[in-house]
Write a structure and sequence with these properties.
By secondary structure, this protein is mainly alpha-helical. The protein is built from 2 helices and no strands.
Amino acid sequence: MKTLITTTVTAIALGLGATSISANDFSDDLDGVRSSIAAIERQLDSMDVNYNKTEINTGLNRTQELRALEAKYDSLQAIFQNNHVEN
């Protein structure tokens, strides 16, 4: 019986640890994309390039927010590439 309890407690602890690590990685991903977006927006502003300054809707879950931020970054990157080549 002690072995079953120990095994169960260990499994729960490992599961919680993995969830915590996963949440931290996800937060790091969100922070990284936000930082990249801010950097490219500053660069576009310094180049006097007009671009769509939309904000991501609140109320999205973390996965939706990450996907929306990635799409925004991709769009800004394309605008930067097009204007960088022109100049």
